[in-house]
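Q: I'm a student working through a structural biology exercise. My instructor gave each of us a protein and asked us to get a predicted structure, then write a short paragraph describing it. Mine is 2Fe-2S iron-sulfur cluster binding domain-containing protein. I'm not confident about reading structure output yet, so if you can add a plain explanation after the tokens, that would really help. Here is the sequence I was given:
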Amino acid sequence: MVSFLKKLFKAKSVPTVEVQPFGASFEVPAGQTVLESALEHSVPFPHNCTVGTCGACKCRLVEGKVKAITDFGYVLSQQELDAGYILACQAVPQDERIVVQVQAGIEDAPPSERYLGTIIATESLTHDILRVTVEVDRPLRFVAGQYANLKTAALTLPRCYSFADAPEREGNRRPSFMIRKVPGGAFTEALFAGSLNGAAVSVEGPLGDFHLRTGSGPMICIAGGSGLAPLLSILEDARKKRVTRRCVLLFGARTQADLYALDQIRAIAGGWRGGFEFVPVLSNEPAGSDWEGRRGMVTEYIDAALAGEADRGAELYMCGPPVMIDRAIEVACNLGVDLEAIHYDKFTDMSTTARAVAA
Ligand SMILES: Cc1cc2nc3c(=O)[nH]c(=O)nc-3n(C[C@H](O)[C@H](O)[C@H](O)COP(=O)(O)OP(=O)(O)OC[C@H]3O[C@@H](n4cnc5c(N)ncnc54)[C@H](O)[C@@H]3O)c2cc1C
Ligand code: FES
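A: Happy to help. First, here is the predicted structure for 2Fe-2S iron-sulfur cluster binding domain-containing protein. I'll explain a few features afterward.
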């Protein structure tokens, strides 16, 4: 009876979180997320949007339970959820002790800084993708595959865009981005209307940990729409560095009119040292057109691209729409690719969070 009363009236203890591999341990006051507390305690926890959209705060829950403010499943795949991954910016501890494991970031990544930029050129790549060149006030260094936050005066929150060029040794003065028009989107509608030509834009970067890992197994790269941008950056950089891995670039588009950067891809393929195959796959090309290439969903061709090497160091590098990436993770895991060998940036937007909050 005494112990029952003690339990009943014991002040509720404040949960503690341990973050591996930093070894940091701190309390999380009621109502705070794991990320909020980590940042308050100066733990260098990877993050960007803080609203459950970008996936930057993805970490593995090693011990304890958390409650999701917005469903992790809007950003993480089923395979990642099954493996215990959570989003720290949306996780509130439910147990007295929580242990999370953060993935190692990019070794020697340049620090993220804020640059003053001007949109100096836009070039139409397809009916809904522009190459946008931004001149920044000083050279911007990044690792191929990373992205930047762009923000104009009219936006409340920045928008993420992957660097489309290979990094230059001294930093890029005129980085370019490949930006797809999102119907109803505040930034891209203005961009496509031409009202941002010459506009000032704040550029924060580099951000993210999408990059080419060292390895000798095949690289299966999968791009959807403007998701080609960071893969071109990675592939051009890898070509310059004389990477000798077998590489397959699967490019998913709707019709022939949605294919772009073909000359650039041909140039990369021509200079590649380890066998390069480019496989464009069209999902909505009219039947009976002159298209002789692959048709269907790009994820249907992962098996052929792996060519039986799923368990021989194969890695997947993917960028594009969330639905394509989720399906690709499922297919690749079923084919025996290790979840840890699957690297991606999902091109999520404000509607991702809005859907999760509304659910
Ligand atoms: C790491 C990362 C890298 C990326 N890289 C690229 C890239 O290289 N190229 C690229 O094209 N894109 C990229 N994206 C996506 C990009 O950041 C933007 O999300 C996209 O361009 C949309 O911006 P926007 O301002 O036009 O649209 P937003 O204003 O963000 O709106 C997007 C959609 O959500 C809807 N919406 C907005 N607010 C709400 C709300 N409250 N409720 C319901 N619906 C809402 C809008 O109507 C619209 O349909 C990347 C995203 C991430 C996370
Ligand atoms: S910081 Fe958590 S999803 Fe963006």
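A: Here are two points you could use in your paragraph. The chain has a mean pLDDT of 94. The longest strand covers residues 113-126. It's a good idea to check both against the output above yourself.
Q: Great, thank you!
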